[in-house]
Amino acid sequence: MFGRAGALALGLACTCLLTAPVWAQQPAAPGPGQLPPLPLTQLDERALSADLDNRAFTLAFTQPVPVQDLLLLLVRGTSLSVVPDPDIAGSFIGDLKQVTVRQALEMILPGLGLDFEVDGSFIRVFRRELDTRLFSVNYIATRRIGDASAGVATPGASFARVSSETNADVFADLSSGVRSLLSDRGTFSLDRKAGLLQVTDAPERLDRVADYLEAVDDRVHRQVKIDARVLEVELNEADAQSLDWGALAEGTARGSTGGAAPRSAPASLRIADIGRFLTALDEQGTVTTLANPQLLALNNEPAIVRASRMPSAGSGPMQDVTLGVTPQISDEGLVTLSLTPIVVQQTADQPATTSRQETDILARVRDGETIVITGLPRDRETRERRNVGITGGWFGRSTVVVRKRVELVILLTPRILSPIGAP
What we know:
Elements: H1 4-25, H2 45-54, E1 57-66, H3 67-75, E2 81-84, E3 91-99, H4 101-108, E4 114-119, E5 122-127, E6 131-136, E7 144-145, E8 148-154, E9 157-162, E10 167-168, H5 170-181, E11 187-191, E12 196-201, H6 203-220, E13 223-235, H7 245-249, E14 268-271, H8 274-282, E15 285-291, E16 294-298, E17 303-309, E18 318-329, E19 334-346, E20 354-358, E21 361-366, E22 370-387, E23 397-416
Helix pairs in contact: 5-6
């Protein structure tokens, strides 16, 4: 179809189309004073991965090594490069055995407040980014004081209060605990009124603060109900100086070590059967219940029980009984009670005559176990009009002072309301 001239023209055109791309790929010759371009190379990702995760080594340092020098040692002899930020600081002492570069970085850098990222063959080391979290602290923004005091101000009035040298400030203790967990870059702000704690630090430090707050919250919000019974026993025997605790403890005491129980009053006694104990107590004298309250107390927070006796004229002295109780609940469900019973009495016709009995007891009981507090015996004088002579009558009556031995007995039964570790 085509002539010779047409075929020749078509062939030249095809040749030009095929050879043009080849000519375009050839670089131009460098001019005078120019260096030839470097050949294009491709990174071997398998070699980088082997140097970072597969190549194990051992290093031992008995003297502090600056972190910059340590980073250079970790990548020596590998295809990796390290680029530390200029503001990083710290040193390392330790023994690294059969670890990879990545493992060494993950173990060493977090403790120094540093982090790293891998970009190709470059390892960039920098200070860790700070984070901020808000925590709720559900505590009352008041400071409690924990001691019991009692007294008689006037013949017809008495007082009781909770005050002492030992005070409890949850927020102050919380601030001290959080401060000890933060790094030198960490900060926090505690708002007592709103009940919010704002903490800024590295993520692992914030995790420690969260664990600490959870543990504090579990302990602070533990609550115990204390069934209290304040009894007064007027002994039947005229010459008795105290209750016969040997007879009371027989068959009712818990945790006996064997042998004969002492007749003298112990500071505290744990009993297993309250009914049998009260029956044995009633056999030794006239039992009067002064108070039978129920207390709700938080862990390590003071509570107070007060019972007053205002007798009629001539029937005995005024009496005020105050019991300060501070419970501490352990993880094992044991309750440690700090007890301060105080007895103050004053005769109505002699306001200046006042007697005071006080003791301080520390006891540990199980959940639901009953403890008996005693050791506060005293004498009570009452005036009774009796007939004298044969005929009696108005002229045959006389006022007789009768002295009786009285002992105070306090029964306490603590019961933990919520299980240990429950929210």
